[in-house]
Amino acid sequence: MNEQLTILLVVVPLMIAPITALFKSHTISWILTAIVSLTSLILSFIILFDVIDGSHVIYELGGWRPPWGIEYKIDSLNAFIALIVSAIACLSTIFAWQSVPKEINENNYGLFYAALQLCLLGLLGIALTGDIFNLFVFLEISSLSSYALISMGRSRKALTAAFSYLILGTIGATFFLIGVGFLYAASGSLNIADIATRFSTFADMQLVMTGFIFILLGLGLKAAIFPMHSWLPNAYGHAPSVVSIFLSATATKVSIYVLIRVLFDLYPVAYWQALLLPQILLVLGCVGVIYGSFRAWQQVELKRLLAFSSVAQIGYIIIGISLLNNDGITASVMHLFNHALIKATLFMGAGIILYRTNTTKLSELRGFGGSMPWTFAAIVLAGLSLIGVPGTVGFVTKWYLLSGAIAQGKWIVVVAILAGSVLAIAYVWKIVEAMYFNSKRKMVIQNVKIGDINLAKAPFSLSLALWIGAAGCLYFGLYTELPYQSAQSIATALLSSEVAP
Amino acid sequence: MSLMLNLVLLVFLLVMAIAVLKTKHLFAMAMLFGLYSLLVAGLFVVLDAPDVAFTEAAVGTGISTVLMLVTLASIKDGHEAVSTTQRKIGPLIICLVMGGLLIFGTHDIAKLGEIHSPPNDQVAAHYITQGQAETGVPNLVTAVLASYRGFDTLGEVTVVLTAGIGVLLLLGQRRKIHVKKRGQAHDDQ
Amino acid sequence: MMINDLILRVVTKWLSPIIILFALYVQFHGDYSPGGGFQAGVIFSTAILLYALTYGLDAALKVIPETALRVAASFGVLLYGGVGVVSMLLGGNFLNYSVLADTPLAGQHIGIIVIELGVGITVAAVMILLFFTFSRRVDPE
Amino acid sequence: MIEYILGHINYWFIIAVMMVGLYTLISRTNLIKKLAGLAIFQTAVILFYVSLGKVTGGTVPIVDEAYTLYSNPLPQVLMLTAIVVGVATTALGFALVIRIKEAYNTIEEDAIFTLDQKDHE
Question: B152 at the D interface (CB within 8 A)?
């Protein structure tokens, strides 16, 4: 494979986004976005197939050797994350075709799509880079564009949600920056591989430990790990549909990816085992699962319900990391993929509901299932995946997670997963009940003039995107090869460094 | 000598930061904030970082303060409300813990100005000895910024563009109605 | 936002070109002295800011229309990225300026000047754009 | 002991400024005040980085035959980027504040919270 392809993954959105910003036409900006996300998808597929055997591609930016220059060192984990991000970007782009004209001011189409591409660029940049300061720069690109994107939601609450995300996100990023600074003060380097190889020479400095804690706090805020999740429900609950779909499926995942990188590649595993971090993560993960599921069950509004369920799903991923065995890591990495797929599908369902009825309040959705059986079916399918019913993607993750926990004799995890699943049944049932079984009266279309043809049925592109997502939930539940192989290769690579039994 | 100057400026800086915290008048706060940035720029000069000082002076005292003033002019609300429910204890504890942690961390940091500290000996040493020979630029900050870490700078320019796009998305449209009444700006406009 | 003060107007008229000249110096002399694209961009924008503050937003918009600013903001990033793409086409890695000319040092020289220009253009354009967009929200009273 | 204090006191002061910024950011309810706190917090972090590169007796990192000892250019480069990121964040924050003021007619966080609660009922 030509290694120049790796950098193209970042260069394509970088060169097309500024052009997109200049257009006002929806068609042109959409086509440009479609080109960007499609090329990203193809490129990340090519790269993933190249590195899935455990090899890696090295790309020196500017031709400078690391650690003096910035390098990309791409292994299966990088490529897998890039694949998740660009696949979701493709789904969101399909969905955007008919939902953006309805939700965004017509003068802003070009700017909106440009911001979306910049967000994609930032996330891809984080996923590929091997330089920890470069990672910060791309983190900020993706964060700044997501603050702007979230504030485009139609309720005024979107503005306050974006503002509090801006505050907490910037605190997170600055904590990360402090951590990097402390690590730099001890190591004198910013290259992840370089720091890792020389780690033993400065391992016992207090600088290194403080740096570690601040990096973790920063990433925890960005990844919305319980109890630092407070920005997430509002941000994803009030954002425009496309933004909710894209960000809920990718933004927190990419932060978790950085966390995995820091824990397994930057700092030696033994270092944070000594700090009791696996136990702390385990408890946070379990509490997060139960708390997130419980709050989701309490919600009366569909998008907020889904957002709280994300908090719970992040908990599962954290549990998997904390188990520190092959099954646990495999489960976590696969769940990054599976949850992205499930949550994108569910948010697309919510987007279609919003498109047609102008509301996502569960109490106002009575009878919806009857009038839109296909959309309803897709939502139910994704909901079943969320619960973890056999045959869907969610089941695969929970299976590996359970077997990893049982192998270590961590029964608290088993209890947490079972409780989380029961609560998941409860909140998915809540959606089903609200939409289907209360169908005594006909669906009410809120605030729309009678006879508006556009709203009579779900537009084609929206349904298409939804069904691609739903089919994915089923397909990858039955044929797990692609995510499983990647996750296996990743887990082996991550654990091949030193793990104390 | 430069250490003393550094200390004096830092004391002023701390005073200024506390003044920003305490003042209730937001226009005064904007001015204090400008002064704070100017002091920081001065500190950068003492720390032999004229490029950073230049930028901080132009951005902190210039652009940021002007934007703050324009925002204040636009929202016509010059005072911070005296809040009854102001949270004080929680934030104080967080800050003390974080500050304590940072001071704990700086225990084994190389002392200020140490010639052979890890940050100066590892990667940076290469820039100083080879920088001009490899890039042909005597200003090593420019050499690292534009060439060795040119990709970071590309990212930085993209951040600027992103901020521009974001602000245009938020404020690009002319306002429809001047002052919205509370009820009008409701969820479902 | 117009200010009717003769002294201020005359001073601004004289000061703006000098600030712009200084910005250009900082832009192109950044290899040898402190400064570079970013600083130059900000300084350039302050010249326009000063003009807008004394002569009013509309007068400033006549000097630099908003469309031009938007194009310039995008153009700077494209220029920077373009240098990277060109170096890829010439067989080097992304942003490897050494392949841009016959000798690596000459290539580095060209590359650094062009990307600094890109930085300067984008920063100046975005800063002016920010100021214009914000100050349009201030009610003329 | 005195040497230890002299070597570290700068960092302690920087940390103190940092924490004043953080405190302003999380304890105040006024949105503009919060953003000012955020800017102070970030600037202090920038100061911390630049301090790392200071070399006693060194000069500005511009190569000249008259000097042999230079300050470390790397933290300075990183912080140029960080300053830009900081101003980009504050600008976006101010834009949001203007929009929030238009939508809620207040920029106090607790007042906004009360208005949002009312919407729910």
Answer: yes
CATH 1.10.287.3510 holds for D2-120: yes
With beta carbons less than 8 A apart as the criterion, state whether C30 and B139 touch: yes
- Which of D5, D18, D79, D94 should one mutate to test binding to chain B, selecting the residue with the greatest count of B CBs within 10 A? D94
User: What's residue A453's pLDDT?
Assistant: 46
Q: Is residue A30 part of a domain?
A: no
Q: What's the average model confidence in pLDDT over B101-111? A: 89
Query: What are the φ/ψ torsions at residue A251 (nearest 5 degrees)?
Result: -60, -50
User: Count of CB atoms within 10 A of residue A148's CB?
Assistant: 29
Other Cβ atoms closer than 10 A to A105 = 13
What is the predicted pLDDT for the residue at A56? 85
Q: Does the CA dihedral A314-A315-A318-A320 come out positive or negative?
A: negative
- Indicate the number of domains in chain A: 1
CA dihedral B50, B55, B60, B62 (to 10 degrees): 110
Q: Is residue A305 part of a domain?
A: yes
SS3 content of chain C, % helix, strand, coil (to 5): 75, 0, 25
> Where do we find the tokens 């049944």?
A425
3-state secondary structure of D30: strand
Note down the domain range covering A387: 279-501
What chain C residue is nearest to D83 in terms of C-alpha separation?
C38
Tell me the C-alpha distance between B46 and B10, whole Å: 11
Q: What is the pTM of this model?
A: 0.94
Could you say which residues of chain A have pLDDT below 70? 1, 367, 438-458, 497-501
Which residues of chain D are within 8 Å of residue A184 when distances are taken between CB atoms?
A: 49, 52, 75
Could you tell me the pLDDT band of residue D94, with boundaries at 50, 70 and 90?
Answer: very high
- DSSP string covering B7-53: HHHHHHHHHHHHHHHH--BHHHHHHHHHHHHHHHHHHHHHTT-HHHH
φ/ψ of residue C81, rounded to 5: -60, -35
Sign of CA dihedral A15, A17, A21, A23: positive
Sort residue A401 into left (φ over 0), alpha (ψ -120 to 50) or beta.
alpha
Residue pair B126/D72 in contact (Cβ under 8 Å)? The answer is no
Inter-chain Cβ pairs, chain A and chain B, closer than 8 A: 136
Which of D60, D84, D98 is nearest residue C137 as measured by Cβ atoms?
Answer: D98
Q: Residue A108: which of B126, B159, B172 has the nearest Cβ?
A: B172
Give the lowest-confidence range in A448-457, B62-71, C104-113, D103-112. Answer: A448-457
Calculate the dihedral angle through the C-alpha atoms of C3, C6, C9, C11, rounding to the nearest 10 degrees: -140
pLDDT confidence bin for B169, thresholds 50/70/90 = very high
Q: What is the pLDDT of residues C34-92, one digit of tens each?
A: 888 899 999 999 899 889 888 888 888 888 899 999 999 999 999 999 999 999 999 88
**A120 within some domain:** no
Q: What is the pLDDT of residue A170?
A: 95
Distance CA A288, CA A314 (A): 8
Report the C-alpha gap between A60 and C34 in whole angstroms.
28
Residue A252 lies in a domain: no
Question: Are A178 and D45 inside 8 Å of each other by CB?
Answer: yes
Looking at residue B185, its pLDDT comes to 40
Show me where the domains of chain D are located.
2-120
* CA A166 from centroid of its chain's CA atoms: 18
Lookup: tokens for A110: 């070009």
User: Is the Cβ–Cβ distance between A244 and A236 less than 8 Å?
Assistant: yes
What stretches of chain B show up as alpha helix (H) in DSSP? 2-22, 26-46, 50-56, 65-75, 89-105, 118-121, 123-135, 140-143, 150-171
d(CA D82, CA D52): 15
- Tell me what ipTM this predicted complex has: 0.94
Please report residues of D whose CB lies closer than 8 A to that of B37. Answer: 43
